[in-house]
Amino acid sequence: MKSIFLHLLILLAFSTSVSFAQQKPIEALDAEKLKGKVEHDLVVAQDGSGHFRTISEAVKAIRVYLPKPITVHIRAGVYQEKIRIDGTLTQVTFLGESPETTVISYGDYAAKDNMGTFETYTVQVLGSDLTFKNLTIQNTAGPVGQAVALHAEGDRLVFENCRFLGNQDTMFASGEGSRQLYKSCYIEGTTDFIFGSATAFFENCRIHSKADSYITAASTPAWAEHGYVFMNCKLTADEGVSKVYLGRPWRDFARTVFVNTEMGAHILPVGWHDWGRAAARETVFYAELQSRGAGAGDASRADWAHVLDPKDLERYQKPAVLSGHGRDADFYGNRWFGDERDSSFNLEASFQKDKKSFPQIKPVLLSAGPELEVFENQVYKSLGSRSLQLDVFKPKVSENPLPVVLLVHGGGWRSGDKILQRSLAIRLAELGYVAVPVEYRLSPEAQYPAAVQDVKEAIRWIKTHAADFGVDSSRVAISGSSAGAQLASLVGLSDLPVHEGKSDLVASSQVQAIINMDGVLAFHHPESAEGKVAAEWLGGSYEQVPEIWDEASPSYLKNPTLVPMLFINSQYPRFHAGRDELLEKLEKAGVFSQVHTFPDSPHPFWLYDPWMEPTEQLIAHFLDAIF
Fold first, then answer.
1. 30 carries an active-site annotation
2. Which distant-in-sequence residues (6+ apart) come within 8 Å of 370 by Cβ?
């Protein structure tokens, strides 16, 4: 009976839907009986309306090394708790209602029972892949010496819209190899109130000094490229505070950099302190770039500190600081520290660039006419809070199911949008096809092979919904331009498990035809000029990850699923590197292929007249021959 009871409790935990909007009581769970078993979202509420009354009970109940992410929703209240999150706890988001109303509070300090600094924490985070949002973590001991609010040593930790309140040693951001992101947070303290050995990125944070003292005390390991990086932050202080240093080295090799930070008048002109150890000046790296405000760097800064050149800015951007070696994927394949959307590749920007060399060109931006049906922003894949969408353009009138063409936009795997394929989709729909521009994850959000898996899922989705859109699922083509052409070719030719990914849809991702518009077929190739942009997507340079560069090259697939292919190219050979080798394979296998080159054309020729019409005609004639 006891085991049946436990089983029912676990099922209850799994089946309970939680949200702050849900007001009806949730049946409480027994943390002791469920210790290490729960792997579903939980609610913590002091009034008993959740699964648990304390955060510690919820932490105790969660399964170690969770198979998928969960969220612990923490309702408003002041939680007087000392919380330890062990290294076996991963993939959890602790979500408060707001930092003003959801508060975790405790008051230990170093001199209390001789416990020492590192046992004074209110919240200790040793686990990795954890996120904390909309919370306050505070140590209420007061100005009694070292008293830590947050003790964080795990890797891939995210704190967003949180407050960290205390005095001396408020935040221990530490752990060799630990990477931590603090986004839109408020951090206050007196002396060394941000200290430790982590690589930590502070983005749009307010750093508030409560006394004349030191803000940071980094102990960066000698081998680490980055310690603390403050980006777009604001340094403020209590009234009367006027002598604050940016930092001092807790250990040799400390690294602390402030970028584009507003500094109040409380920051001393000298800026930095050596903690009375002149030798440390030879090993530490303290620097600023584009500081502003009354306390900004000037000629009075310590002569052993650095003022960076604007060309160094890229080195201190979030991806450069927080990326590890290889891929930085979370459970869903997204970069754990979030993405910065790159909108640099768009129709207007391309036109302004290309018209300098091709003054006769005209950008094509069409609207669907009354003869077409349009279904925009159809969600084909959900990844936690992230949804991927596609658009469907089709003739309103058709007696029979129609062949479908999925269209994959370009942009160097890091930029672009499905709207870039809209005009071509409209033209193909007018010619009697169902045309489907597809969104996929770009490299700032998720590295290879996420985009390949996304496009394959879009194929499965459109086949699964074939009846809804009048699609003949036995006649599926995929078209891509530039980076999208490389993706389309890899999607169409490969059935490797790494490219298929995981899916709940039973439909196949196989296509019957591929259109490649100026997309590379081999990354490491004599004709290829791919470098940094490709490396960002593939997780490193060719010298670092040669096997990935080859795996992502359609021409280098060992056992490709060969289908008819159309290659439409500009005048630039670099954009069809590997094409000729693939053509040989197609010819040897007796598989139909065509090649057309537009002389004297820009790379993104498909975006402009006079090439749009011949491009659509080439595609239509090719597909008519196949289908």
1. no
2. 396
Q: Model confidence over 526-575: pLDDT tens digits?
A: 999 888 899 999 988 999 999 999 999 999 999 999 999 999 999 999 99
Q: How many angstroms separate the CA atoms of 129 and 93, rounded? A: 9
> What is the DSSP pairing of strand 386-395 with strand 434-438?
antiparallel
- Given 41, 108, 169, 192, which residue is catalytic? 192
The two tokens of residue 594 are: 């065509």
**56 and 87 in contact (C-beta within 8 Å)?**
no
DSSP string over 537-559: HHTS-TTT-HHHHHHT-GGG-SS
Helix (H, G, I), strand (E, B) or coil at 294: coil
Measured on CA atoms in the order 555, 561, 566, 568, is the torsion positive or negative? Answer: negative
The CA distance from 539 to 442, in Å, is: 13
Condensed to tens digits (0 to 9), the pLDDT of residues 195-240 reads: 999 999 999 999 999 999 999 999 999 999 999 999 999 999 999 9
Residue 620, helix vs strand vs coil? helix
CATH 2.160.20.10 fits 210-324, yes or no: yes
The secondary structure element, H or E, covering residue 566 is strand 565-569
- pLDDT of 80-119, one tens digit each? 999 999 999 999 999 999 999 999 999 999 999 999 999 9
* Of residues 446, 475, 482, the one with CA closest to residue 567: 482
CA 295 – CA 301 distance, rounded (Å)? 10
Nearest of 183, 196, 193, 190 to residue 212 by alpha carbon: 190
Is 377 in contact with 387 (CB distance < 8 Å)? no
| CA dist., res. 441 & res. 615, Å (int) | 26
pLDDT in tens, 469-521: 999 999 999 999 999 999 999 999 999 999 999 999 999 999 999 999 999 99
pLDDT in tens, 265-275: 999 999 999 99
Report whether the peptide linkage leading into residue 449 is cis, meaning its omega lies within 30 degrees of zero.
Answer: yes
Q: Which residue has the tokens 């298929």?
A: 500
The maximal CA–CA distance of the chain, rounded, in angstroms, is 85
Backbone angles phi, psi at 469, to 5 degrees: -120, 10
Structural domain spans, the chain = 1-65, 76-173, 210-324, 370-600+616-626
* Architecture of the CATH domain 370-600+616-626: 3-Layer(aba) Sandwich (3.40)
Tell me how far the alpha carbon of residue 85 is from its chain's centroid.
Answer: 24
Q: How far apart are CA 258 and CA 291, in angstroms?
A: 7
How far, in Å, CA of 605 to CA of 48, rounded?
63
One-letter identity of residue 519: G
Cα dihedral 235, 237, 240, 246, rounded to 10, equals -50
Dihedral angle of Cα 54, 57, 58, 64, to the nearest 10 degrees: 160
